[in-house]
């Protein structure tokens, strides 16, 4: 499989890239500043020549994503899976009175508009039911339990609301592309030990990455009416 991943330089994104390579897949590993922050990706590339493409990409910049898509077209690249992983957790004020609306804007930019932008421009390069490949293609938007309306906790407005919107996008996208044989999931990866999750989190991001790859490879079936699931394929409360 050829797997496209955003925010692949660290945290869950890097683990997903490394796990995909371990399983024999190829990756298009995107990050905004590979020269500065891509050291682990370059090591992965050296280790597996020909299977790791490192793309410098600012996913919030539509013109840049369009240019990236044009390059894929020129190269005749087909994509089996998109993992929209990059996100920010900012503006952790717990009271509405302290809320900085700029944090709402930047969170929606990266956590919602960027994945939409990516899918908008990369959809033409995804394998479709009509293609030779028997495996369905997958779009995986990395979400969070924080985006569950059912479990709303009255804090983290920018992050929680942007992930709730991402879940809605996933659901709408599922309706739009399911006839083409493309599966769409909005995946809660667990509370993970990453820069975002902190050192006390219970989940190793490598375990989350393995679960996500199992879903992409259809080793775990997630036949849920709603797209929002966890990394083991279990339904999440929307
Ligand atoms: P990290 O903070 O460790 O990594 C975030 C990644 O997103 C980095 O690669 C970062 O790139 C990239 N990124 C952030 N802002 C931008 C931007 N403006 N443009 C491009 N790339 C950007 O996060 P995690 O690995 O922990 O999180 C991965 C996913 O899992 C996210 O979607 C997150 O919401 C979700 N999640 C995480 C949980 C956790 O406990 N960690 C819990 C639930 C969900 P750079 O290095 O350039 O900043």
TrEMBL record:
Gene3D superfamilies: NAD(P)-binding Rossmann-like Domain. InterPro entries: Fungal_SecMetab_SDRs, NAD(P)-bd_dom_sf, Sc_DH/Rdtase_CS, SDR_fam. It comes from the Bacteria. PANTHER family: NAD(P)-BINDING ROSSMANN-FOLD SUPERFAMILY PROTEIN, SHORT-CHAIN DEHYDROGENASE/REDUCTASE. Belongs to the short-chain dehydrogenases/reductases (SDR) family. This is SDR family NAD(P)-dependent oxidoreductase.
């Amino acid at each position: 499989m050829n797997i496209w991943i955003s925010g692949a330089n660290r945290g869950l994104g890097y683990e997903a890239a490394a796990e995909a390579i371990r399983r024999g897949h190829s990756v298009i590993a995107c990050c905004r500043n590979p020269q500065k922050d891509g050291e682990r990706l370059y090591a992965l590339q050296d280790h597996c020549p020909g299977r790791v493409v490192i793309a410098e990409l600012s996913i919030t910049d539509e013109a840049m994503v369009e240019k990236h898509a044009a390059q894929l077209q020129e190269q005749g690249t087909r994509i089996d899976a998109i993992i929209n992983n990059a996100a920010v957790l900012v503006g952790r004020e717990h009271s509405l009175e302290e809320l900085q609306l700029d944090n709402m804007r930047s969170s929606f930019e990266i956590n919602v508009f960027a994945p939409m932008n990516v899918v908008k421009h990369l959809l033409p390069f995804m394998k479709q039911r009509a293609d030779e490949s028997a495996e369905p293609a997958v779009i995986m938007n990395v979400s969070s339990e924080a985006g569950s309306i059912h479990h709303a906790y009255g804090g983290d407005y920018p992050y929680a609301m942007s992930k709730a919107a991402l879940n809605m996008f996933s659901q709408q996208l599922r309706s739009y592309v399911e006839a083409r044989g493309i599966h769409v999931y909005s995946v809660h990866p667990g509370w993970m030990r990453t820069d975002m999750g902190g050192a006390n989190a219970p989940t190793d991001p490598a375990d989350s990455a393995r679960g996500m790859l199992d879903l992409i490879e259809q080793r775990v079936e997630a036949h849920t009416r709603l797209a929002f699931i966890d990394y083991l394929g279990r339904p999440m409360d929307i």
